[in-house]
Amino acid sequence: MAKKKHSVEWMLERVNEYLNGEGSYDSIAKANGIGYATLVRWVAAYRFRGIEAFSESGGNNSYSSTFKVSCVEAVLSGILSVEECTAKYGISNDSV
User: Fold this and answer.
1) Pairwise CA distance, residues 38 & 75, whole Å
2) Positive or negative CA dihedral for 93, 68, 15, 28?
3) Long-range contacts of range 81-89, CB-CB < 8 Å, 24 or more positions apart?
4) What residues does each domain of the chain span?
5) Burial 22-44 (b: 16+ CB within 10 A, else e)
6) Residue 4 pLDDT exceeds 70
7) DSSP string of 23-59?
8) pLDDT at position 1, please?
9) Which of 18, 41, 49, 81 has an alpha carbon within 20 to 30 A of 9's alpha carbon?
10) pLDDT, tens digit (0-9, with 9 covering 90-100), for 34-91
11) In sequence order, what DSSP letters do the residues of 74-85 get, joined into one string?
């Protein structure tokens, strides 16, 4: 299992910079040496799950077939985007 590169506090500061209008995704990401998509994911996760989005332990999760189908249906029906689905349910990556 990989160790988190950034502390919860540091990630939350970057999220709050964006949410408080202190910069765009691009400018905050560049200024802090993180990827644009990473910051977008952090903000989305925070919006859905709050601080808990950053305090979850890493590692591989397994998902039931029923859960996977419900996520796909939510995306296909337009209820959630792929990014919103991963953020809401704590799925590590859009490709999962």
Assistant:
1) 21
2) positive
3) 83/40, 83/41, 83/44, 84/44, 84/48, 86/41, 86/44, 87/41, 87/44, 87/45, 87/47, 87/48, 87/49, 87/53, 88/48, 88/49
4) 8-55
5) ebebeebbeebebeeebbebbbb
6) no
7) S-HHHHHHHHT--HHHHHHHHHHHHHHTTHHHHS--S
8) 39
9) 81
10) 999 999 989 999 998 898 888 765 667 788 888 888 888 888 999 988 888 888 887 8
11) HHHTTSS-HHHH
Does the global pTM surpass 0.85? no
Assigned token pair, 2 = 């990989």
pLDDT tens digits for range 26-36: 999 999 999 99
**Distance from C-alpha of 93 to C-alpha of 85, rounded to nearest angstrom:** 10
